[in-house]
Amino acid sequence: MADEAKREELLKRLADGVWKFEEEEVVAAANEVLAANLDAYDAIINGLAKGMEEAGRLWEEEEYFVPELLLCADALYAGLDILRPHVKIEDKAKSKGVVVIGTVQGDVHDIGKNLVKMMFEVAGFEVHDLGKDVELEKFVEEQLKTNAALVCLSAMMTTSMLGMERVIKMIRERNPNVRIMIGGAPVTQEIVSKFGADATADNASNALKEALRMVSSLRTMQ
Amino acid sequence: MRQKALNLLQGKRDSEFLCFSGMGNVTTEGMKATGIRFAQAHTDAGKMAKLAATSFRLFGFQSAVVPFDVAIEAELLGCPINFYTEVDPQEILYPTVKEKTISSAAGIRIPSDLANAGRVPMVRQALSLLKSDVGGEIPIGTYIMGPFTVAGQTMELDHLLKLCLKKPEEVSEILGIYSSLIVELAKSYFAAGADYITIREMGACSDVLRPTLFRSLVEPHLKDIFRKSAGPLVLHICGKSNGIIDSMNGCGASALSVDQKNDLRQTRESIGKAPVVLGNFDPYNVLVRGTPQDVRRAVAHCIEDGVDAVWPGCDIWPTAPRENMEALMAAVAAGRRERK
After folding, report:
1. Which superfamily, per CATH, for A95-221?
2. Does the CB of B86 have a partner CB in chain A at under 8 Å?
3. Chain A residues within 8 Å of chain B (Cβ atoms)
4. Residue in B96, B213, B239 closest to A108 by CB
5. B157 touches chain A (CB under 8 A)
6. Which of A19, A23, A184, B135 qualifies as a cystine partner to B131, CB 3.0-4.6 A?
7. CATH 1.10.1240.10 fits domain A2-91
8. Which residues does A107 contact at the CB level (< 8 Å), separation at least 6?
9. So where are chain A's domains?
10. Domains in chain B, ordered, with CATH?
11. B210, A185: Cβ pair inside 8 Å?
């Protein structure tokens, strides 16, 4: 009972530290999780990720914008760096698989991608980040090499998004089962259908929403 | 046509609607007509000017604008640029900043002879060539990235955005330096023949920055730019802009340019009928992907909602088909009747 009260307190401190971007508070709480021998995976999912959910809600309500989300991400990563090495082997086996992510050639905007990547990492995916301005063939090569179940293509500019169609075709030709997610400001559902991708996110907000939904459903499945 | 556009930028309206832009508007049709490959046009004044004139020559588009990419300022400041000269000519890839080389105000080096630095002389020459070629008929425009956008192009963007909250005074110092650069570039371009210049501050849109942060951090520097520059300057901010339209209007630009994410009726409610507002035609979803009927409908919508001239909300994506470009110009010309 005392342990459960301690757990709840620390989970709340982790969550609050994340959405209030109080990095030092997150570090302190994460270290106390370890000192109290609490479950690291539980602290990540129900503490750090829950804090990011709150940040996502504030984003949707237009209280938080990109700078705030980035500082929340820093706070989350500060906690993740401490807790992740202590995730038990059986929890690591819960990994949802491999994701390849990158920003397409002609585009050097990667903040949205980095936020989405972070949420996949929190959710337990193994993420291979190709970076920004990625040649389209590289997505195909990396998907084949890692046998990734999901490929995320990001393009924030209209001028760079049309290359996505070609890369989606190339990936599909080699592996019809891979799921492909597109994110970025100019992408709309209609374009997703045209390109043959599986999911869309109209902007970083929706990409984050989808990633958050994934995290939420993961938490529900525990 | 040229004088009507310049009159409009001075706030003088008449019954005729115009369709022009402050941003790139070249098409693959223009590339075919001239034999100029897109990747070649960014570093050659003659090709740039020739290509820029094609939207007027082929479709009657009512301006010619150079350059076509958004990397001039970052290149001036020392960032390597990828021009994608090796890619398939069928690919349309705009030059991008390959590496961000600035991490603080102390690291910024402004070239001493700005008019002859980087690709500035090329842009100036292209402006001069356009002036001689089509400048008697249509206005010649150019654009410069706004200070916050230049900051985001030259610094790691996540670092810049975090600094906005952690050390806003440091960001303000950087924006001040870049604003001076912009004022000097504007002088140089006006001297070379530009009739109007668009300050493109898309990095500071409300999809990224909280409106209060825009007001406290970016607006003062934009005001500074517009106050110190002679000649017509347009302020363009794309994305969600209704939350900052009051601030945009207060910056002192000759006109405001917005894109399809701006609710123009709401904009008019916020700032009234007097400010010159250009927009908010969707250059991709309508002009590239729509039908001529979609184009006509969208133009009518822009005019009904209160634009003073139909401007694409961003660069025209070059694969805009001929029939849609033709529909665009015809629809705007027909807009005169609706105005009455």
Report:
1. Cobalamin-binding domain (3.40.50.280)
2. no
3. 64-68, 70-71, 74, 105-111, 114, 133, 157-160, 162-163, 185-186, 188, 190, 203-204
4. B96
5. yes
6. B135
7. yes
8. A132, A133, A154, A155, A156, A157, A159, A160, A161, A184, B96
9. 2-91, 95-221
10. 1-8+18-331 (3.20.20.210)
11. no
* Interface check B316 vs A, CB under 8 A: no
At which residue do the structure tokens 């504007």 appear?
B186
- The answer to whether B286 and B259 have CB atoms below 8 angstroms apart is no
Pairing, β A179-183 against β A199-201? parallel
The residues, any chain, with a CB within 8 Å of residue A220's CB and separated by 6 or more, are none
What span, in angstroms and rounded, lies between the C-alpha atoms of A25 and A29?
6
CA distance linking residue B19 with residue B173, whole number of Å: 38
Residues of A in contact with B162 (CB under 8 A): 67, 70-71, 74
Of A43-57, B134-148, B267-281, the range with the lowest mean pLDDT is A43-57
B108 near B177, Cβ under 8 Å? yes
Which pLDDT value is given to residue A105? 80
CA distance linking residue A108 with residue B277, whole number of Å: 30
Chain A nearest C-alpha distance from B9 (Å): 27
Does B88 contact A at CB distance below 8 Å?
Answer: no
For B59-81, the pLDDT digits (tens) are 999 999 999 999 999 999 999 99
Q: Name the residue among A67, A159, A190 with its Cβ closest to that of B209.
A: A67
Provide the b/e sequence for A178-190 (b: ≥16 CB within 10 Å).
Answer: bebbbbbbbbeee
Instruction: Name the pLDDT band for B89 (thresholds 50, 70, 90).
Output: confident
